[in-house]
Amino acid sequence: MLHTAEYKQIGEMIASCRETDFCARLAEWIRTDAAVDTLTMVVYRGSEPPIHLYDDFRNETARAGMMTYLTSTYVLNAFFQRHQTGLHSGVYRIRDLAPDAYLQSELYKGYEVVLSEREEIGYVTEGWPQGLEEIDIAVSLGNLVTAEIGLYRATDRGGFADEAIRLFQARMPVIEAAFHAYWSYSESRPASEEEAPRPNARIGFETFGACLTSREREVVTMILRGHSSESISYNLGISITTVKTHRKRAYEKLNISTQAELLSLFLEHVQSNYNAPH
């Protein structure tokens, strides 16, 4: 049974749904009885880049890492990829969301990411704190809009035990209700006229490699999303030999030879669309 102070904290958090400190209050409540070193909150709307709501990074390097993530490397994120196919509300370990070749791919060697065997998914955005285990709380807000509450704890401090997962799962009804109320109010406010246009990963995928055939583009897109040749073969219903042939031809047309070059070229394409006149 909850103590009086805990009921009060929940009440104050829910009452703040229309206030600017809601995310900070929600973060404080989530941390109750849970060993969390770092917490972040973003919202994904379709294939657009994440909308930053909250983080408790305290140093400039980590904040720069967050900015890099928000503007480019989010396209690699396993949560973002699953969100685009429809991710149900729940509590997930990030490693359980990643495609089969996420750890082995050369993709992440080429663009503002640091490869590390200490990381659950094999890499971390440059500047982002390393050596953290990650749990993600997903809140489905409807119409392909998903909130991601990222919880991080140092692996050398034991990471997150299954007991922590169960604790966050038990709190999901309150988290979902509070976040829905907050987001509904946020969406009802008039949009700022100064809001800048945002790069769009879906448009980036659809327009990338105009010289490629539709099948070559499908293969390239799945490579960018971290799938192995075996996974591409299974999902597209073609042989592994055919996958490799499409990949070879696509690389020749794009004048590249590695997955790292492919990623760099794609992110430059997304960013150029973002910077183009609107």
From TrEMBL:
Gene3D superfamilies xref list: Winged helix-like DNA-binding domain superfamily/Winged helix DNA-binding domain
Signal peptide range: none
Record-linked Pfam families: GerE
BP-aspect Gene Ontology terms: regulation of DNA-templated transcription
SUPFAM superfamilies documented for this protein: C-terminal effector domain of the bipartite response regulators (SSF46894)
HTH luxR-type domain sequence ranges: 206-270
Origin superkingdom: Bacteria
A GO molecular-function descriptor: DNA binding
Keywords for the protein's UniProt record, in alphabetical order: DNA-binding, Transcription, Transcription regulation
PANTHER family tied to this protein: DNA-BINDING TRANSCRIPTIONAL ACTIVATOR DEVR_DOSR
Name of the featured protein: HTH luxR-type domain-containing protein
